[in-house]
From TrEMBL:
UniProt-listed SUPFAM superfamilies: LeuD/IlvD-like
UniProt xrefs under PANTHER family: DUF521 DOMAIN PROTEIN (AFU_ORTHOLOGUE AFUA_6G00490) (PTHR36577:SF3)
Species assigned in the record: Vanrija humicola
Key words, A-Z: Iron, Lyase
GO MF, one annotated term: lyase activity
Name under which the protein is recorded: Aconitase X catalytic domain-containing protein
A Pfam family reported for this protein in Swiss-Prot or TrEMBL: AcnX_swivel_put
InterPro entries named among the record's database cross-references: PMDh-L-like_dom, PMDh-S-like_dom
UniProt xrefs under Gene3D superfamilies: Phosphohistidine domain
Entry superkingdom: Eukaryota
Annotated ranges, domain Phosphomevalonate dehydratase large subunit-like: 194-598
Taxonomic placement: Eukaryota, Fungi, Dikarya, Basidiomycota, Agaricomycotina
Phosphomevalonate dehydratase small subunit-like domain: residues covered: 63-138
Length: 624
């Protein structure tokens, strides 16, 4: 829970009854927000060298490979992306960067092994998540996907043409426009990482073959981060514990088979299935059995079997302000940095395991104080100051992610509010779908941005009702006006204790006609039972699924979670409203928790913006 302490600074406290401030003295230091700070130009270079010759597939919109690309076919399934329906297979894909999930590395790995990966990637900005997928595909399976960063030259690319990468330069022949032939020299990746004696010993096998191989991968990716050294970390949260295909399973089983074990406490993300109920839920035996094998491999290396949650910040083991950790799972990374004030990069799946096996992470990015300073400022419009609607938080997060890109942003104008854990969870999760940044600040709310530490610069972007209406429209594709719904999808990320309390109060004495399914971590469910929140939910008929989360629900018709007859779903999660349509093949509509309960009772929801966004009956898109 986040609160403001008596001394006036904002700090993240796990115990809301704590009277004293937990923030260290450095958190109240005052420094001006950099005005007009411009990063040094990026010279075109390889992240992963290689050769390719294929047609150009171009978009100026970042793409999350997980939840946005089918790993078995290469088709773009993100319904919000301009390339929806196009195949990446055999094309040179040019995008500014990845976005969203840390699991893009897993998807690129599966694409490469399945023979449907892009021939190469051309990026505006470095993306270590995608680069790692290529490195592992090459190291383990001999299936390399070249990755090049073009920096400012990305803006000069044509939108179509033929591409050649020859290992030292990029050549594009455009069918139209000027120039008809573009040549961009590409530098090779640099390696300036300094190793300690302990690092050298790890590489030499002092702690076994598993730790040695993991450290070799660590070293390769550290150079891509521009790290000059490694840092000891105190804990890891592993993201890629869910089944994406045989390649990732083989990678994890390889380390388990050679006796590798975690070097630091390691929690696990949600897995592919409820390990106790997957057969009863009608989940395909292949997914159930392969997903269980993957979870077992992680458990055999020392992963915490009691965790299995996409919201590890809700666990008692959540890190403290300033603690150096290594987390995967995009919403968890963002909450960890932003709300808890601990320090972690947005670590790719597979690399998070290598860090867990060594206890060492690249000292780069937001592990470093200077990289946590905001370089983008936004303010909630005064007209929205009186809005009291849970939807405000995911909509602000979704818009903030869109405009932030890879930058660390600070938001002003929310300091008079007292957000619940679930509010900040909703903001962080929605932010993570549209941004590649690992964190944000909210003045007066998050622990590293007490009022006055970062005075607003002269130029501050305003977050307007029009911005949030645009986010609402994007997240409500496929329906307008009164719409029948048969499933209410709650708990993405996993339900928090305050959400259990709210839902228990809302459903008291109510009936439902639609199915209400909650995904939650077992630890939080135990807390909810102790508080008496589960009894009214059981009487109401809500179903609680553990271990997995909604993001891993099979496609409609492939399980009893979402059947072929279910046409529309409603959720309180901005994250799931974004990813759900591509994952399920069904529209997933966004509403606050109270409206979700109303929809569950009536079996209908009126899809129109809330009154504070205008309330008009607007066109919101075609059904996917």
């Amino acid at each position: 829970m986040t609160r403001t302490c008596d001394s006036g600074c904002a700090t993240a406290c796990h115990d809301p009854t704590t009277a004293s401030c937990k923030a260290p003295a450095t958190a109240t230091n005052t420094s001006a927000l950099p005005r007009g700070a411009v990063p040094a130009p990026t010279s075109p270079h390889f992240l992963v060298p290689g050769r390719a010759a294929a047609p150009l597939l171009y978009s100026n919109t970042a793409l999350s490979f997980w939840g946005g690309v089918d790993a078995t076919t290469g088709e773009v399934i993100d319904v919000t992306h301009p390339l929806k329906g196009r195949s990446l297979a055999g094309n040179v894909l040019a995008i500014p960067r990845g976005r969203g999930s840390c699991s893009g590395s897993l998807v690129l790995l599966e694409l490469a092994v399945n023979g449907c990966a892009p021939a190469a990637l051309l990026l505006e900005e470095a993306d270590q998540i995608l680069a790692l997928g290529s490195i592992v595909a090459d190291t383990i399976f001999g299936a390399r996907v070249p990755v090049a960063v073009l920096g400012e030259r990305f803006a000069t690319l044509p939108t179509s043409g033929d591409v050649e990468l020859d290992g030292s330069r990029l050549v594009i022949k455009s069918a139209s426009g000027s120039p008809r032939r573009m040549v961009i020299p590409l530098a090779q990746p640099a390696d300036s990482v300094r190793l300690t004696e302990a690092d050298e010993a790890l590489l030499a096998g002092a702690r076994g073959e598993g730790a040695a191989q993991a450290m070799a991968i660590n070293r390769a990716i550290a150079a891509l981060y521009g790290a000059e050294a490694f840092v000891d970390i105190t804990q890891v949260h592993l993201d890629g514990v869910f089944y994406t295909g045989p390649a990732a399973l083989r990678f994890v089983q390889h380390f388990a088979s050679i006796g590798a074990g975690v070097a630091v406490p390691t929690t696990l993300n949600a897995v592919s299935v409820d390990l106790e109920r997957w057969r009863a839920l009608g989940i395909d035996s292949t997914l159930g059995e392969e997903g269980t094998k993957l979870a077992d491999a992680y458990l055999s290396m020392g992963g915490d079997g009691a965790s299995m949650t996409c919201a590890p910040y809700l666990l008692p083991s959540a890190p403290s302000l300033g603690e150096q950790v290594a987390w995967g799972e995009s919403n968890a990374v963002i909450f960890c940095n932003s709300v808890l004030g601990a320090r972690t990069q947005k670590y790719p799946d597979l690399l998070d395991l290598c860090i867990a096996l060594t206890g060492r992470a690249p000292l780069a990015g937001v592990h470093i104080e200077a990289e946590r300073v905001p370089t983008l400022a936004l303010r909630l419009a005064p007209a929205l100051a009186g809005v009291d609607d849970q939807l405000l938080w995911p909509l602000v997060g979704y818009h903030l992610g869109r405009v932030s890109g890879a930058r660390v942003a600070i938001v002003y104008g929310l300091d008079k509010r007292t957000p619940r854990t679930s509010d900040l969870k909703a903001l962080a999760a929605a932010f993570g779908t549209t941004s590649s940044s690992p964190m944000f600040h909210i003045e007066g709310v998050t622990p590293e941005a007490p009022v006055g530490r970062f005075p607003p610069p002269s130029s501050v972007q305003e977050i307007t009702a029009a911005d949030l209406l645009d986010a609402w429209r994007t997240l409500n594709t496929g329906a307008r006006g009164p719409t029948p719904i048969s499933v209410v999808a709650l708990g993405n990320p996993h339900f928090a204790l305050d959400e259990f309390e709210q839902l228990a109060r809302l459903v008291e004495g109510r009936k439902r006609t639609a199915r209400v399914t909650i995904t939650a971590g077992r630890a939080v469910t135990v807390q909810a039972e102790e508080k008496g929140y589960l009894a009214p939910l059981a009487a109401y008929g809500a179903d609680i699924i553990h271990d997995m989360c909604w993001c891993f629900a099979p496609r409609a018709g492939e399980s009893g979670i979402v059947t072929a007859d279910d046409r529309f779903l409603v959720t309180s999660s901005g994250k799931y409203a974004h990813y759900g349509p591509g994952i399920l093949g069904r529209p997933v509509l966004l509403a606050n928790l109270a409206a979700c309960v109303d929809a569950a009772e009536s079996g209908t929801i009126d899809v129109r913006p809330p009154a504070w966004l205008g309330g008009a009956d607007v066109e919101v898109g075609e059904e996917p």
